């Protein structure tokens, strides 16, 4: 059944390292349980997405404001998990133009290009984009930019750089999109 929950609040800066540690611990537990890898859910208004986007991250400390500061938390989580389980066992999911739960970003192309580059530098295995959005063109441009930056930053690392597109594909359109180079899967 439903459980009463506390009203949402911003994390204190002193709480953030502990939350990063929780992600790392969860990934280690998944590996101990026999998983082949994990995917960080940085989409659909979950906490990594909330820190990434300027429409939800209203912080004025070292974890918000500028794009670099907004990406600090998601990249710290990805880096910590990659160090714990190996970057070749880590994926990251994004939804650059998703608007669920009032999510928004003033420049998703720039935001997700920078995030894609940062994840590629870490050397994670794959970047997975859920492309649903009211503005399909913005979703496509944002995903394309994120994928290009991810692949560029991951070049030379054979365990990294796989891109996955998701949302509304029929088998024929998925095959055509892969053949066109829009994504690897």
Topology:
Elements: H1 16-32, E1 38-41, H2 47-52, H3 67-85, E2 90-94, H4 108-122, E3 126-130, H5 136-154, E4 162-166, H6 171-179
Parallel strand pairs: 1-2, 2-3, 3-4
Helix pairs in contact: 1-3, 3-4, 4-5
Core attributes:
alpha/beta
Please describe what this structure looks like:
By secondary structure, the protein is of the alpha/beta class. The chain contains six helices and four strands, in the order H-E-H-H-E-H-E-H-E-H. It has helices at 16-32, 47-52, 67-85, 108-122, 136-154, 171-179; strands at residues 38-41, 90-94, 126-130, 162-166. It has a four-stranded parallel beta sheet with strand order 1-2-3-4. Strand 3 (126-130), helix 5 and strand 4 form a beta-alpha-beta unit. Helix 3 (67-85) packs parallel to helix 4 and helix 4 runs parallel beside helix 5. The longest helix has 19 residues, at 67-85.
Q: Beta-strand level of the residues, as a percent range?
A: 5-15%
Task: Please count the beta strands (DSSP E, at least 2 residues each).
Answer: 4
Number of helices: 6
N-to-C terminal Cα separation, in Å?
37 Å
C-alpha-based Rg, rounded:
16 Å
Low-confidence stretches: none
Q: How much helicity do the residues have?
A: 40-55%
Shape descriptor: globular
The average pLDDT value, as a whole number, equals 93
The helix/strand class is: alpha/beta
Q: Largest sheet, described in full? A: 4 strands, parallel
Order of strands, widest sheet = 1-2-3-4
